[in-house]
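Re: that backbone. Tokens:
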């Protein structure tokens, strides 16, 4: 789904950028250009950023607690 129409940035592109290390809106602006024209996408882009960061922290917790990982798989 397109998040930033001006720059043609999708939620997948934001997800990929976060997986590559972007962790702030400033990072997304720098690496993707999100929100650098009309700015209407900023709120939605921030929401996607926060969702991906939450997903990644959940995975990190599961990796540090192998028993939870086994439970999640079963
Ligand atoms: Fe992202 Fe315009 S929609 S800058």
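Recovered sequence:
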């Amino acid at each position: 789904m397109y998040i930033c129409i001006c720059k043609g940035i999708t939620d997948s592109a934001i997800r990929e950028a976060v997986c590559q290390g972007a962790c702030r809106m400033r990072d997304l602006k720098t690496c993707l250009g999100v929100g650098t024209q009309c700015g209407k996408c900023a709120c939605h882009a921030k929401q996607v950023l926060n969702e991906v960061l939450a997903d990644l922290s959940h995975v990190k917790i599961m990796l540090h607690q192998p028993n939870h990982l086994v439970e999640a798989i079963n």
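The mean pLDDT is 89. The helical segments are 11-19, 25-32, 42-64, 66-73.
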